[in-house]
């Protein structure tokens, strides 16, 4: 019922290469990659290393668990409470500083927009000025 016209393409004639073609190593090769993209071998974001092949690059910090007697000690409790307060204060300060920077950025972006508009108006006036001709 329907007929399609298909143009025949000429068959390519084999030609000898002018220079030797470089052979790239395969992906499974043990050659190091020069790519900047993360790979599963190097611990990319979505990599799921198996337990047999994973070796941690850093060592865990050594610490000793507190005994119940030490944890119930009043000086330990005071020390922990002071540390918790200091951490809370530090995080609150960092959040406030970030909020202040964000607000300042917004103000500067608005100011830049206003200055660009002023410059555009001044350039338009200058272009229409008769004294420059």
Automatic annotation (TrEMBL):
Example GO molecular function: DNA-binding transcription factor activity, RNA polymerase II-specific
Protein name listed in UniProt: Basic region leucine zipper
Residues annotated as transmembrane: none
Bias kind Low complexity: ranges: 29-59
Gene Ontology terms describing biological process: DNA-templated transcription
Location of the region described as Disordered in the Swiss-Prot/TrEMBL record: 23-99
Limits of the BZIP domain: 74-126
One Pfam family per UniProt: bZIP_2
């Amino acid at each position: 019922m329907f007929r399609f016209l298909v143009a025949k393409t000429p068959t390519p004639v084999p030609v000898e290469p002018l220079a030797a073609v470089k052979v790239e190593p395969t992906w499974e090769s043990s050659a190091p990659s020069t790519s900047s993209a993360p790979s599963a071998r190097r611990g990319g974001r979505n990599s799921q290393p198996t337990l047999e092949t994973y070796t941690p690059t850093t060592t865990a910090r050594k610490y000793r668990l507190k005994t119940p007697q030490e944890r119930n000690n009043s000086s330990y409790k005071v020390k922990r409470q002071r540390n918790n307060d200091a951490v809370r204060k530090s995080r609150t300060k960092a959040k406030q500083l970030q909020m202040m920077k964000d607000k300042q950025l917004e103000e500067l972006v608005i100011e830049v927009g206003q200055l660009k508009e002023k410059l555009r108006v001044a350039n338009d006036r200058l272009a229409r000025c008769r004294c420059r001709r």
